[in-house]
Amino acid sequence: YTDAGCCNNDNSIWTAVAAIDNVYKCPNWLVTPKSCKTHTCSNTACRAPGFVPGIFITESILDQVSRSLKMDVEQVKEANMYKPGDISYTADINGLVLTYCNIRELWKQIYETAEVEDRKKQIVEFNKANRWRKRGLSLVPIKYGITWNSWKTTILVSVYSGDGTVSVMHGGVEVGQGINTKVAQVAAKTLGISLDHIIIKPSNVLVNANGDTTGGSITSELSCLGVIKACEALKERLEKVKEELEKEGAQNPSWLDVVTKAYLNGVDLSSKYFVYGESKYCFAYNAYGVTCAEVELDVLTGQTEVKRVDILYDCGQSINPELDVGQVEGAFTMGLGYWLTEKIVYAPDSGQLLTCNTWAYKPPSSKDIPEDFRITLLKNAPNPLGILRSKAVGEPPQTMSCAVLFAVKRAIESARQEIGNDDLFSLSAPATVEDIQLKCLSDLSQFVF
Asked: How many whole angstroms separate alpha carbon 124 and alpha carbon 137?
């Protein structure tokens, strides 16, 4: 079920259904989505809409199964993971063949690099030695489907004869994801010139008429595809001019020499390309990743510190690793607020939003990020189905941030076990300090030394 508010205008429940299997093979899924109209304000899509709660639901199921069977949750997860060649049916009724599924490889690698087994033992010893502070550790894997079917944009690349400057106008909007940087890099590489020659111009509806929204983690990729095609058309025209200059005796003519000659010869120095996304399946490909999170909580107050987070993400062959690592960090940190601090409260009678400012609504800040934050992009993993063998990165890492909530749950379990309570319990998001403190079941009778 989903609370659609007063209007069903931007419902993301279908993506939650598509993501419900996450990385786990199960031949008998039966998921019936229900959208509920309520008296609250309507919703709008935000980073990884539907995927964030969809993946959390499945991780919660695995967590509950493991606790009920008194098994290690990581062992249960690993035993049920997809293998290459398995078929996922939740996103496509005809089945999506997971030809390049590498989740087991990522799982094995982070188990070693994050020293999971050793840290679990250290956490057990820490919890034994500390009554009022507890630690917990959790691993969350993800499979995130990237869809670009029917996505449209127009790219315009123009070369200026005066100084050889190349202007690029793409259909995306720079919102911090680095699309302008990636587009400029791809244009320079395709044309074989210095990045200094490239200027990115703001998009407008005259050039990019009927263009689609910036979102879905695909805008950078498909804009780069359009830039490649437009630049290749320009390069083909300019290669002929360069050959002509060489015949006239010029040795290794410069970029400006070629552009100037092309201008004098009446060569069109602008190239437009229309991108229309198409793929055989609902998802063009899947992005995979694993997060290992360790937290420490104060049993008396419910305050939580994120001690260490290790993220291993399959970004394919990254177009710009620095940007992509930043996107992983940003997406994960944004998720910290979703799972731990950003509680939304509505008036029960009118549905009015009561948490409308930071006095009551708490997004994560600089003091909330992990004390030890380790991001690794999977090496030697080109994506044959992506643009320039890369993978999307804007949204998928946020879905792994629920690892922090499950780590908090492990710490709460330790606190409850110390007072002889081993009952199953649920921990909903956001797990605020009040919620965590109450779940620890502390009372005055325990404050005896």
From this structure: 10
Q: What is the pLDDT of residues 37-89, one digit of tens each?
A: 988 888 888 899 999 999 999 999 999 999 999 999 999 999 999 999 999 98
Q: Tokens 């009678």 label which residue?
A: 349
Q: Active site includes 434?
A: no
> 380, exposed or middle or buried, with CB in 10 Å at 0-12, 13-18, 19+?
exposed
Residue with tokens 């899509």: 45
Instruction: Tell if the pTM clears 0.85, that is, is over it.
Output: yes
> Closest Cα partner for 396 from 277, 283, 288?
288
Burial 28-48 (b: 16+ CB within 10 A, else e): eeeeeeeeeeeebeebeeebb
Distances (CA, A) of 120 to 117, 312, 332, 351, 436: 5, 19, 22, 44, 21
E-state strands within 285-410: 285-298, 304-313, 372-377
427-447 pLDDT, tens digit per residue, is 999 999 999 999 999 988 888
Annotated catalytic residue, options 74, 221, 342, 395: 395
